[in-house]
Design brief:
By secondary structure, the chain is of the alpha+beta class. The chain has 2 domains: about 150 residues, Ubiquitin-like (UB roll) (Roll), CATH 3.10.20; about 160 residues, no CATH class. It is about 50% helix and about 10% strand. It is built from 9 helices and 7 strands; from the N terminus they run E-E-H-E-E-H-H-E-H-H-H-H-H-H-E-E. A 5-stranded mixed β-sheet has the order 2-1-5-3-4. Strand 1 and strand 2 form a beta hairpin. Helix 2 packs across helix 3. The chain is globular, with a radius of gyration of 26 Å.
Amino acid sequence: MTENRENRRYFDDEEYDKIMIPIYVICDFAKIPDYRFVLNVSEDDNFAGFQDMIHHKTANTPDVFHAALDPYEQRFIHNGFFVATPAKYRDILQTHLKNFIEPHLESRFKEYEETADQRPQTISEEELFERKKNFLYAGAPALNIYLTTRQKVTSEASERERSLMDFTLVKRKFILCYALYQNVVECFENFKNPEQAQWESQNRRFINPEDLLADINFKHEYYDWQENEPTVIQFGELIERVADNFNQIAEMIKEACAELDKEKVENDDEEFLDEEYQTTIKRRKFKIQLMMDGMRYMATLNQNLANFIVPLHERPTELQPRMLKYRDMH
């Protein structure tokens, strides 16, 4: 039904024909235990938009929430699984739309059409529209989403510890690529906030592939290493994230080059040789080192990504997606 909007027009004006989906949000961090509220989102809403709605709600309800919850700190769970990617959010939204909201609206629309003779004759189009909308959406089943925080999730212990060598080659390489991806992100975040980071680059946190096995966030939000071999779909999600790495590297290079240009000018001026300038020099060296580290991680990441094989000749099914393969160079 979602593919043929013209077949389920509930309003005369096409502008208002996008279906709204109620989302029942249950919180575990509010001042009121098990606080819950409803958000109405459009059928074509995106994950970033939903996160912004959560941020706005927590920021503007100080009597319920201790502080605004930024998108980075938000964690969503639906039917026991984390919802952490735009694709996953879109999937649960469209599934709920098809299985629950559209059947409900079809049924209510038929009832509404049967009451055409009972409607008031002296009513404005605006009032008629509101009455019709309220009638159609009355009792619409909501999509339940559990909202928690990054801090609460990361405080939980990992289910069990595993060695990377217990896995197949393709799984080891897939986890390695995610570790390299996260190291680039780590370089970029420290590059953008040098005052909050440690000055010496050798003291910067390095993320090993084994570290991800102990990270419950990684298991639920990126890749469920405990049960599954990586699929082509999950490879696509990784590539989407790596695309952000390219933007981060480009931004670091651009800013580092600007810093080096300043260095040329200031080296000829003795008044810059004071303590404040020395601090500036240290910060520049720190940022340039982060840029170089990020480029090294990126180079290794690209080398490993190039050896993955996507078996397009294999036909995927609902129960058996295309499984990712890796080219063993030895």
